[in-house]
Amino acid sequence: MLIAIIGGGLQGVEVAYLSKKAGFKTMVFDKTPDPPAKGLADDFVHVDICQIDQASAFLEKADLVLPALESDKALAALNLWQKNSTIPICFDFNAYKVSSSKQRSNKLFSRLGIPKPMDWPQCGFPVVVKPSFGSGSLGVRIISSKDEWEKSFNTRHPKDPSAKEPWVVEEFIKGPSYSLEIIGSRGRYETLQVTELFMDEKYDCKQVIAPVEIKAELIRNFEKSAVTIARDMKLDGIMDFEVILHKGEMKMLEIDARFPSQTPMAVYASTGVNMVEILADSALNQPLDSFFLSQKPEPAPDHISKPISKPISKHIPKHTPKHVIVEHILVSPKGICIKGENIMKSCGPLHLETDFFGADEAVTSFVPGLNKWVATLIVKGETRKEVIKKNNQILDGLARQYNLSLKQDNL
Fold first, then answer.
1. Is the pTM of this model over 0.85?
2. Rounded-to-integer distance, Cα 119 and Cα 117, Å
3. CB 170 within 8 A of CB 155
4. What pLDDT does residue 353 have?
């Protein structure tokens, strides 16, 4: 199996990593010469995918094309190329059109009755202001008061001069953040493991923990909301969902109908479920035994992401999930920092290491003698307490070995 991964950024890293775990060969395409995913790929094609005639000869060698980027121009070029090729593209262009706009997504949530943060000006301050397009923390601002609003904006609906739509303005709510992926088509979907997200000071996800320790009812409500949205959008592929648990209710923040980063790696480390492998099976018309949410066994009342006793699909884990921490660190003469995933773009191509300073695995730019490097650490344990202790020991050991200060948040 040869998978053409379109985009060598952080989503491309995720796809390349999971492809390697599935035993697939990979060919990464990117317009920059040294993207992060280059070091994880079997082959690298330095080309702007928008120049589709140049890229086509390479694309036709693949068994499957999996876009791992969020460029409208690049996706339009691939969509056009697909019409004249027999190579399947694992991407739902229609669902992405909705999910890539926070304005459209919010209207969808309201229509379906999905709990979400309250819109401004119906809510009071503080509010969060974010571009309608773009994922992650890019452009996110928190406005705490009317005075701060008036200093920052002079209109009810702020808009970047280059933006296609007004920015989203809604109530800023606090609480733990959770993520969930769903995969399927034609109304039949599998919800995967829920993970917990931890953000840095710029609201960029720095750490993912699995399994989660929340009530079974909250997980069921999250899954039902995800399935409701996927069915309404007639999803064909993968989508991820992010919520905040606020005052006992899961409130939907955003959806993304494209391959995510960070959480698939954590889910794989915890459960062995490989989202790239599932998508490849689905795209190549192999049976998935997908199931409706109602067919999944009910979790026990004290549910803490416990294993399913009788697997419904070959992709559902047959063992108790491992406890896992996936986090991003930056090591430099200034110290060791746990930061949002965007630091992983800063040090060139990444590669995979095992038993990395005590971590089970790491995707990293580290080479001996380098004084600045990054790593996504993957740390496993039998309990949450054990994995947190192991993770802290790894960071403390790095600090001692390199005589650096450790700047971290306590879990």
1. yes
2. 7
3. no
4. 98
